[in-house]
TrEMBL record:
PANTHER family, alphabetized: HTH-TYPE TRANSCRIPTIONAL REGULATOR, HTH-TYPE TRANSCRIPTIONAL REGULATOR GLTR
Protein name as annotated: LysR family transcriptional regulator
Keywords: DNA-binding, Transcription, Transcription regulation
InterPro entries per record: LysR_HTH_N, LysR_subst-bd, WH-like_DNA-bd_sf, WH_DNA-bd_sf
Organism the protein comes from: Chromobacterium indicum
Pfam families from the UniProt entry: HTH_1, LysR_substrate
SUPFAM superfamilies: Periplasmic binding protein-like II, Winged helix' DNA-binding domain
Domain spans labelled HTH lysR-type: 2-59
Key word Transcription present: yes
Family from the record: Belongs to the LysR transcriptional regulatory family.
UniProt keyword Transcription regulation present: yes
Length: 300
């Protein structure tokens, strides 16, 4: 019979990409990790990794097991918390889009830290697609991403609705479709949901932008826009949080199907923990105080 400890070791090896880093993460000796991993493979009667020298390559079976392992470990944690003090405590691994972290999270996290000092909160920023994969793989407990998402493995709660605007140099008027086709678009990587929205809308208009330049931060993006390098798609709330930089650019309205984007708090279904429930409650409280614009979006 599989043991939860074996599943934790298996997940660490899968996520860290090898025995050495998994052992460091788990504070175990490498020989113990190797032995427990082989014991799990013997119990299952299948190879979870292909050995190529010192490298371990996950098999298709390993990725299937990972989904079951995460569900079993989540259920075990839920049972532990149900039998113990339900006050928020322990580690909470949260992911967030950079725009959400910059424009909305700081006051929430400050309040959360003051209310729940026993929670060790870890924040990782990234693109929506990357964060979603991390939640599904169990590397994050939850994430704030741009929706909508269509994945039955996830619970989704709308915690904000962003007004999305096209940002150009300060002296520039609203660009026409022809100007968009001849413009440089300043974006994050291909996993950025706002970039995907803009590219999908341009395709519907039969427009192919001349050039796309990927940047690593919104500060860099706004600076390049202000200098006339190109155009960007950004949440209005982010501009509101950076008034000095916002004063150096102009904003332009987008079509209705592009101009509003729900921000979702996502987690794996049935993954319950008091620390995450408390954060969700605080995010919703702040959203409703901010104007109650969530009614148009249903939660799953």
């Amino acid at each position: 019979m599989m043991e939860l400890d074996e599943l934790r070791i298996f997940q660490a090896v899968l996520q860290e990409g090898g025995i050495t880093r998994a052992a460091q993460r788990l504070h175990r000796v490498q020989s113990n990790v190797t032995t427990r991993l082989r014991q799990l493979e013997d119990k299952l009667g299948v190879a979870l990794f292909l050995r190529e020298g010192k490298r371990l390559v996950p098999t298709a079976v390993a990725w299937r097991l990972n989904d079951y392992a995460q569900r079993l470990l989540d259920l075990a944690e839920e049972a532990r918390l149900a039998m113990a003090d339900a006050a928020p405590s322990g580690r909470l691994r949260l992911g967030a889009m950079e725009s959400t972290a910059a424009a909305r999270l700081a006051p929430v996290l400050a309040d959360y830290h003051a209310r729940y000092p026993a929670v060790q909160l870890e924040l990782q920023t990234g693109e929506s697609r990357t964060l979603t994969v991390a939640v599904l793989d169990g590397r994050l407990d939850a994430a704030l991403v741009s929706g909508p998402l269509d994945d039955d493995r996830l619970e989704q709660t709308v915690v904000a609705v962003e007004d999305i605007v096209l940002v150009a140099a300060a002296a520039r008027g609203a660009p026409s479709l022809e100007e968009l086709a001849d413009s440089t678009l300043l974006t994050f990587g291909s996993g950025c949901s706002y970039r995907q929205r803009l590219e999908a809308w341009l395709r519907r208009q039969g427009v192919q932008p001349r050039r796309i330049v990927e940047l690593g931060s919104y500060h860099a993006m706004l600076s390049c826009v202000a200098c006339g390098m190109g155009l960007a798609l950004l949440p209005q709330a982010l501009l509101d949080s950076m008034p000095q930089m916002a004063a150096q650019v102009s904003t332009h309205a987008l079509p209705d199907d592009l101009s509003r984007a729900p921000t979702l708090l996502i987690r794996r279904r049935q993954a319950r923990q008091p620390a995450l429930q408390a954060l969700e409650t605080m995010l919703l409280e702040r959203a409703w105080k901010g104007g109650g614009r969530l009614g148009a979006y249903a939660n799953n």
